Amino acid sequence: MALVAGVDSSTQSCKVVVRDAETGALVREGRARHPDGTEVDPLAWWLGLSAALDAAGGLDDVAALSVAAQQHGMVCLDAAGDVVRPALLWNDTRSAADADALVSELGAGDSDAGAKAWAQAVGSVPVAAFTVTKLRWLAGHEPANAARTAAVCLPHDWLTWRLGTDGPQDIATLTTDRSDASGTGYWSPATNDYRPDLLERAFGSTPSVPRVLGPAEHAGRTPHGVVLGAGAGDNAGAALGLGAARGDVIVSIGTSGTVFGVSPTPTADASGTVAGFADASGNFLPLVCTLNAARVLDVAAAMLGVDSETFDQLALSVAPGADGLVVVPYLEGERTPNRPLSTGAIHGWRLGNSTAGHLARASIEGVLCGLADGLDALIAEGFAVERIQLIGGATRSAAIRAIAPAVFGMPVTVPQPGEYVADGAARQAAWALAGGLKPPQWQSTDTTTYEADAAPWIRSRYADVRELTARQA
């Protein structure tokens, strides 16, 4: 029995699954924590990966491995392959002004024209999360570090590169995949080419960038002979792990919130709401991302001094709409809509809704309303929704599962809890091992469907308050 390993190197932790390459059956798994923060020394990811691999029993009997990881993180390397500075992560918003400047510049001072030009060039309009904006920030704020930067890559690129050697390695051997490259802002999923002109516009020079591999290509081998797959961005990994098909929309509620689906055609949304990413199978992955998701619920529960189970019970004790209490959960600014400097708000507070249950319910509804806006944006781009699959750590919440169909206005399907990003990486590793045009057809996980009466007034009130907060910002 050949075994393959899949890695999910996320913002908060590293997860490893080891599976049977033919059937997908889980053999063992392990995990380790990552440090908090919006900038992290990549060495922390390496230590987390090493600890998670040890917890999962190591690689002695593993034939292939792939790494899926958080997208956009800026990893700068010098000519010797050493890390120049801590990586700026996707949720670091210090480059918001740089994003605005890049958009305006490409439109010769017209932001609308610039947004259209960026969307046509790379499928997405830059926001603070994107690597290209972080490079502009680095060039402007840390010119000495910018001058040292000989290569720039992403978290999964760097981890895969490190796995392939016991010692110093040539930066020219860095590799990436379509899904992660499509989140940089200087690679086009429609043409499968880098845009060095946009990279130079942002950074003032063109550092070395990783070679982009196809879905089943090898990135190399570890010193002990384990085949390394191309890897993927985390959302593309999740789609592959779930076996997402055309018409499936995946709503992931983790550190960030994402709404995405597999499409045979690229998108180019000039509004910037939908990012036109690639997936890990050779198709495309139109995606909407919010910065504020599961951690909003964690913070609300901490404010109330309750655990997650009690928080759920409180939320479900209150009627849909929380009797008019609305939470706009922009605790870390926001990416969709693009309001990086905004703050959260509680609106409609009255004596009759001044209970713990109302705050719990409104917090959950606020997070889900932001994701429902993302669903609307996908539909506006022509995506035909046949099924919503709900994944991520927050789906362990009974209240999330019960309230989501009311906010989305349609049933939601929840797979059994699992590490779907790591599973997708493992499936890609099996694909790299076996070759062929398609990934192995592993058995689908069991699912549960949740239904509720649609409650459109929840989203209507949320939209009013969302725009009110925008005017007051």
Structure description:
The chain is α+β, with helices and mostly antiparallel strands and 473 residues long. The chain has 15 helices and 24 strands. Strands 1, 2, 3, 5, 13, 14 and 15 form a 7-stranded mixed β-sheet that branches. A 5-stranded mixed β-sheet has the order 18-19-17-16-22, with helices on both faces. Helix 1 (42-55) crosses helix 6 (155-163), helix 11 packs across helix 12 (356-380) and helix 12 (356-380) packs across helix 15 (456-472).
How would you characterize the largest beta sheet? 7 strands, mixed
**What fraction strand?**
15-25%
Shape annotation? globular
Helix-and-strand structural type: alpha+beta
Q: Number of helix segments?
A: 15
Overall pLDDT, averaged? Answer: 95
Low-confidence stretches: none
Write the layout of secondary structure elements.
Blueprint lengths: L2 E7 L3 E8 L5 E8 L5 E2 L1 H14 L6 E8 L5 E3 L9 E2 L7 H11 L4 H12 L8 H11 L1 H6 L2 E3 L1 H9 L11 E3 H4 L5 E2 L4 E2 L1 H8 L7 E3 L4 E4 L5 E3 L2 E2 H9 L5 E6 L3 E5 L13 E4 L5 E7 L3 H11 L3 H9 L9 E3 L16 E3 L8 H25 L6 E5 L6 H11 L3 E4 L4 H15 L12 E4 L5 H17 L1
Parallel strand pairs: 1-5, 5-14, 5-15, 9-12, 16-22
Antiparallel strand pairs: 1-2, 2-3, 4-7, 6-8, 10-11, 13-14, 16-17, 17-19, 18-19, 20-21, 23-24
